[in-house]
Design brief:
13 helices; 6-stranded parallel sheet; 371 residues; Rossmann fold; binds nicotinamide-adenine-dinucleotide
Length: 371
């Protein structure tokens, strides 16, 4: 997989980005320089970008890493000078660890969240949080009971371009929003092992886009309609989709579309467009290099970012910074139970729409269908 090698390059990445990180807003740093001691569960693709972020956050200290693959756990533990284990239990039993970051496969999240909360640790978890609405409710109830934080990493909210687009929509720059278009095309094609345990394209990928629409507009749709197909043999064999179009209707008259594909040959294609009477906002793709060649044949621009670790590196850093600020300074966390419940509900309803070939009405607060 394209990103598998990124850990080996992490020292290089750290050097390259240390300078950039130093320029980030440091006003959040506490005067008492408090540090959040964390354990990281899962050292695959997501684990790697969290390792990179932790290295850049002086307010976070990696005390323990866990991976079911003992060699992986040992290697990363040694590299990052932290304790390591194949199971989460030793980390949960360490009283110095205040919080855990869960980046294991989706099917592991619920059990690990519950175990961590029970052990008195705050939790940052990769999306999606649970397998169903009951599990989501159970996790948040457990967090409330334990008096601990539970934060789901909807990283795209923290992307500087998307956050800027959302801010401008909210301040009325384009007038009342009439149409939103979200394009999310993955790169590289994930492994079929990953797809098999991903919980399907709606809960694995489109959950991000539903969250972004809610974040940008502050509105919930009244109807969702999804169509989909598959072009990748392995994905078809898993009875999953790799090419999906979702349309949404809102009570305000706003319309939205989300188009998602598991593989774009030209890089990680992530764009959002918002249209209103007063204008249009576009958050475009970006490239690692900004040089463009203009000649008699036309204009040649470099390829866009290859994949999520580089495209969203600032967002991954910022989401952990916000989580740490919540823990160390008691700042409110911007993503809560309602966000998670509603994005999950929209995934369920979009999946249902695809299966049944019809638009599904939605109520904004509880996700139940109208009769
Ligand atoms: N927010 C994002 O942009 C983003 C991107 C990629 C993945 N993710 C999410 O991150 C999660 C992990 O995805 P990934 O792509 O890193 O998968 P991955 O397969 O690359 O990595 C998962 C790792 O977890 C380990 N593991 C498996 N079971 C475990 C267990 N019980 N305890 C400890 N370790 C265990 C595996 O050995 C592997 O190293 C998924 O839930 C996915 O949805 C989020």
């Amino acid at each position: 997989m394209g990103d598998r090698g990124s850990l080996d390059g992490s020292h290089k990445w750290r050097l390259a980005w240390r300078g950039a990180a130093d320029k980030l807003d440091r006003s959040h740093m506490t005067q008492s320089s408090k540090v959040l001691k964390v354990a990281l569960f899962g050292l695959g693709r997501a684990g790697r970008f969290h390792l990179q972020s932790i290295q850049l956050l002086p307010e976070m200290e990696l005390v323990h890493v866990v991976d079911i693959d003992p060699e992986q756990a040992r290697k990363v533990g040694e590299q990052f000078q932290s304790a390591h284990s194949e199971t989460i239990q030793p980390a949960l039993e360490d009283p110095s660890i205040q919080a855990v970051i869960i980046a294991t496969p989706t099917g592991e999240h619920f059990e690990q969240i519950m175990a961590a909360l029970k052990a008195g640790k705050s939790v940052f978890t990769e999306k999606p949080l649970g397998n169903n609405l009951d599990e989501i409710a159970t996790c948040y109830a457990a967090a409330r009971q334990a008096g601990k934080a539970l934060f789901v990493g909807f990283n795209r909210r923290f992307d500087p371009s998307f956050a800027d687009l959302a801010r401008q929509v909210q301040t009325g720059v384009i007038g009342t929003p009439q149409l939103l278009r979200v394009t999310s095309r993955d790169s590289p094609l994930p492994s079929m092992d990953y797809i098999r345990t991903s919980h399907g394209i709606f809960h694995d990928c489109i959950v991000h886009d539903f969250d972004m629409l809610r974040y940008i507009t502050g509105q919930d749709p009244v109807e969702v309609y999804a169509i989909g197909s598959n072009f990748v043999d392995g994905i078809r064999a898993l009875r999953d989709l790799d090419n999906v179009l979702v349309s949404l209707k809102y009570a305000s008259g706003l319309l939205a579309s989300i188009d998602v594909n598991r593989f774009a040959s030209y890089g990680y294609d992530q764009r959002i467009e918002a249209f209103g009477k007063e204008g249009m906002l576009q958050a475009e793709n970006r490239s690692p290099r900004a040089t463009a060649l203009s000649n008699a044949s036309g204009i040649l621009r470099p390829v866009i970012e290859h994949s999520f670790p580089t495209r969203y590196r600032e967002a991954y850093l910022e989401e952990l910074r916000v989580f740490a600020a919540g823990e160390l300074e008691g700042r409110p966390l911007p993503i809560g139970e309602e966000d998670v419940r509603i994005s999950h509900t929209l995934c369920d309803k979009a999946e249902q729409s695809y299966r049944e070939g019809r638009p599904i009405p939605i109520t904004s607060t509880n996700g139940r269908e109208h009769d």
